[in-house]
Amino acid sequence: MPKIAIVGSGFLGLTLALRLAEAGARVCIFESANEIGGLASAWQIGDVVWDKHYHVTLLSDSFTRKIVEEIGLGDEFDWVETRTGFYTDGKLVSMSNSVEFLKFPPLDLISKFRLGATIFYASRVKDWKALEKISVEDWLTKLSGKKTFEKIWKPLLKAKLGLAYKETSAAFIWATIQRMYAARNSGLKKEMFGYVSGGYARVLARMGEHLKAKGIEIRFNTQVQTIETSGDGRIEISTAKTQRREEFAKEIYPQIITGTHKSNLETNAIAVVENVATSHDQRTTYDFDSVILTCPSNVAAKILPQLTTDEKSKLSNIRYQGIVCASMLTKKSLSEFYVTNITDETPFTGIIEMSALVDKKEFGGNALVYLPKYVAPDDALFEKSDEEIKETFLAALEKMYLHFKREDVVDFKISRVRQVFPLPTLNYSENLPSMKTSLENVYVVNSSHIVNGTLNVNETIQLAERAFAEITLN
Ligand SMILES: Cc1cc2nc3c(=O)[nH]c(=O)nc-3n(C[C@H](O)[C@H](O)[C@H](O)COP(=O)(O)OP(=O)(O)OC[C@H]3O[C@@H](n4cnc5c(N)ncnc54)[C@H](O)[C@@H]3O)c2cc1C
């Protein structure tokens, strides 16, 4: 029975572990956090436990639906028709159907026609590889015109990519439009979005039990530091215990209230403790036959010192986009829109009102709103305290929604992730390292290998199924 190690317990690592165990391997997952799920994991906000980052399943997400079915929760999906808003020129308008599109104020009729034609054309294009050679700005300007690019496309691109939109290929917007169309085309030609009652916390808890029943071991708070192959075919994995940093910090600085509303001082104290925690931790080394790393590419390059210079540079050259994502539990809804796209300058780059999709009963009758700001991994926003970010975000909401009152806010929490998705730069797939490395039985598989899609759980599971087929065939 081969002994296989997996680094990371996000959906990629979990699905790979499941398939490998089903194929007869002994699988152990190493996870630096204290829980499974990675980006899809949940946390507590007020009295509610829900996803740290907003998640929705589309009717067309067949891979997600299949795995949720396998773990016995397939009947638990609620499917809801959602609406989309646009906040533009200081006004909130609905853009949920063709009639509303025709009435959309900021564009004249010809621009609207060109915008509609661009989206329709993109939905019909099959050769995404050709689009990797064209910048998204050039492609959209050519199809929609300069005015529409500046007024609509540019703010939307900047919302997700920041200034890196200038280096991004047209394949990015193509993949986004394809996913949007898939959502409308499956079923009722309406935007039907789904969630499992209890959110990803419930799905992941069930997934964890399912994996345990298959004999898969998960080592939490265990950060993989180096992986090296020895001449006799063994693979040595060195790990360090990542004792829950905030708990460790609390032991040393008991005045720290962790999780919410951290001041600068508290954030700094935790950063100091983080270093202490790592350097004082015990190292442990394990032997395996194969290993699959699902962590970000630049992290993998550091963990694998024996890779060739070319492999290391390819992995390190993959650029990531990060996120600072606020969750707000509040007594009153902001609007009826699940997604509100924003074309004006605001401190966040969109508004996702989860309670416009999920029954408010799940949130104790409150509204749950996410305020994401996608930024580069070295953006100064990562250094800002929770209090500073909260103040800026709430002040912006007060200007945008006259009925919004900060006294209604029940809880406000902030998640920071420096590496969320790889930027689909020009000729992206040509520079991508293969999943199989030059080291025998060592694989690096992560979201960078989603080359013609967008980052979502469905694509992640699909990638895991593809990787499983390649890994076992070799
Ligand atoms: C804001 C936001 C909104 C999203 N919305 C949606 C949505 O609506 N619908 C949807 O389907 N998807 C959505 N997604 C995407 C979805 O969350 C991801 O596609 C998926 O969770 C990625 O899984 P993964 O396993 O590839 O990576 P991750 O979840 O990042 O997992 C990687 C794991 O590796 C661990 N790790 C890293 N380094 C080490 C190390 N050295 N040692 C041990 N462990 C390590 C990490 O702790 C982490 O747990 C969203 C994501 C975000 C951030």
Strand and helix map with partners:
Layout: E1 3-7, H1 11-22, E2 26-30, E3 42-45, E4 48-51, E5 57-58, H2 62-70, E6 77-81, E7 84-88, E8 91-94, H3 98-103, H4 109-124, H5 128-131, H6 136-144, H7 146-161, H8 171-185, E9 192-196, H9 199-213, E10 217-219, E11 222-229, E12 235-241, H10 245-252, H11 264-280, E13 283-288, E14 290-293, H12 297-303, H13 309-316, E15 320-330, E16 339-342, E17 351-353, E18 367-375, H14 386-400, E19 409-422, E20 442-444, H15 457-473
Parallel strand pairs: 1-2, 1-14, 2-10, 7-16, 14-20
Antiparallel strand pairs: 3-4, 5-9, 6-9, 7-8, 11-12, 12-13, 15-18, 15-19, 16-17, 17-18
Helix pairs in contact: 1-15, 2-15, 6-7, 10-11, 12-13
Q: Tally of extended strands?
A: 20
Largest sheet: 7 strands, mixed
The end-to-end distance, rounded to whole angstroms, is: 16 Å
Q: Report mean pLDDT, rounded to a whole number.
A: 89
Poorly predicted runs are 252-265, 268-280
| Unique bound compounds | flavin-adenine dinucleotide
Counted by DSSP, the helix tally is 15
Cα gyration radius (Å): 23 Å
- Give the oligomeric state: single chain
Approximately what portion of the residues adopt beta-strand conformation?
15-25%
Shape estimate: globular
- Residue share in helix: 25-40%
Name the strands of the widest sheet in spatial order: 8-7-16-17-18-15-19
Structural class: alpha/beta
Relevant terms:
474 residues, alpha/beta, seven-stranded mixed β-sheet, five-stranded parallel β-sheet, 37% helix, 23% strand, globular, binds flavin-adenine dinucleotide
